[in-house]
Structures are given as C-alpha cells and as structure tokens.
Amino acid sequence: MRSRILRIVRATIVTSAAATTVLTSVGCGGVGPGVEGLVDLAPPGSDALRLVYLGTGGWIIERGDDQILAAPLFSNPGLLRTGLWKISADTVEIDRWMSGYDVADASVILSGHAHYDHLMDVPRVAKRHAPRARILGSRTVANTLGSWAGLQDRIDTVERDMLGDQETVGRWLRYGDVRIMPLRSAHAAHFDGVALYHGTRERPLEEEPRYATEWLDGPTLAFLVDFLDDDGAVAFRVYYQDAVVAPPYGQAPDA
C-alpha cells in the first residue's frame, strides 16, 4: 500500500462561476451505461495537479510550487499490539518511505482527527522531512501533540467557529497560493455502533501517548482545499476527508 502512487496527469475540469472542482473516483466492475471514449494519456501541462498516495489516509497534493500533506502514516503496528501493548512511531520506516519524496517546502500538514493512525507519524514527518509545514487540526490534535512533540509554534488550531458545513461557509486559511476551509465532520463507528478511542483532550500532553487508547480522536474534520491561480481564481479544488461518515457530515458549502 505504501508504495502505490496515484498520479493525476490530467483531470476533467468542471467549471462553475465560482470554482473549478477536481473529481477523482476509483471503482470496480464493468463499464457503466453511457460510458465511452478513450483515456487521454498526453503529458500533463505545467499547471497540473499531482496526487501521491502514501497509504492509509496519507497524501501528497501539489501543484507547481504549492505542496501540502495529509495524514502521513508509515508506522503499522499490528492488530494485537495495537490492542494490548505500547505503540510508537517507527522512525526507520517513516524515514525510509518519506525520503523518497521531496516535501521540504510543503506548507501544511492536514490532520482530520487525532487517532494514532492519522497523527502518530506527523511529528517525525514535520521535523525531519517537512520542516516548513504548519500542522492544521483540532484542539485535540494540538493538545495531543502537546509539548512533547516540540511543535507548539507550528500548529494552527481549528476552533468550532471556524468550521464550514453544507449550509455555512467556514473560515479560509491561506498557505501560499493554497486556501483551506476546515469542515465539520464525524467519525463512523468501528464496529457494532462503537467508535474506538473517542473523546477530546482538554490539556496539552507533556509526554507522548504510548497506547492506542490514548490517541483520542477529538472533533473530526474534513477539508476543502483550493489551489489558486496568480489572480486568486480557483484553479483546482480538492475535497479531503480521512474518516468514513454518513452525510450530511463532512459536506462542503457552495463557496
């Protein structure tokens, strides 16, 4: 999974009065009714959007000099260890896989919630591989990283009044020629209606969490990401959600 790379070499562009939206989908089965034509394999233009899949919920999303990361995870503790023993970031694996990509100038790392499989590797990635990147996440994300991670001055905390939803335009946060709107979302149950490791963290941790149960999810976010042209117009719009949830949670406004 970690080595699979998804590249968008040319996207179908749906233009509206306000924005251009990139839609990508992966499916299986036969070709649906009314689908025909050839795949365009021409090289991408200079302003193409490139997506690199890192495994789990992890992505590199870039256009030109603008680059962001989302939930990078390379550590992979087994099911038994996750349930019973201590877990920690596997720095050897993180460096092995992350060193294959140049993210030194990445502007931000998105963290939709604070479960270990979305946040545990972020400190290593932020310090060693993406030293200029801000970290965008909830108050629980900020408090889970606390003081032990040494990233206090690099975290942009999303508060409740900043969130958008299908009826509300939230606050745009600017990172170079990228603007990001955090969206109100939720985390689906893991089994039998129960969401594991659920809760919020009200105070910053002084020590790294050692068990999966200590990586509480906190408020779950989705993100609307706009890559902007020089004139401020939206060139590409990307919707990112790193937790399964039923609508209307995670849906974006017409903005």
User: Order of SSEs, N→C?
Assistant: EEEEEHHEHHEHEEEEE
Oligomer: single chain
Strand content: 15-25%
Distance between the termini: 34 Å
Low-confidence parts: 1-29
Percent of residues in helical segments?
A: 10-25%
Mean pLDDT: 83
Quick one: biggest sheet? 6 strands, mixed
Coarse shape: globular
Count of separate DSSP helical elements = 5
Q: Over all CA atoms, what is the radius of gyration?
A: 18 Å
Task: Walk me through this protein's architecture.
With 255 residues, the chain is α/β, with parallel strands linked by helices. It has a single domain (13-22, 47-241), classed as Metallo-beta-lactamase, Chain A (4-Layer Sandwich). Helix content is 13%, strand content 24%. It contains five helices and twelve strands. It has helices at residues 79-84, 91-98, 116-119, 122-129, 139-145, and strands at residues 13-15, 20-22, 50-55, 58-63, 66-70, 108-110, 134-138, 155-158, 173-175, 178-184, 221-228, 234-241. The strands form three sheets. The chain has a six-stranded mixed β-sheet with strand order 3-4-5-6-7-8. The chain has a four-stranded antiparallel β-sheet with strand order 9-10-11-12, with no helix packed on it. Strand 3 (50-55) and strand 4 (58-63) form a beta hairpin. Helix 2 (91-98) packs across helix 4. The longest helix has 8 residues, at 91-98. It is globular, with a radius of gyration of 18 Å.
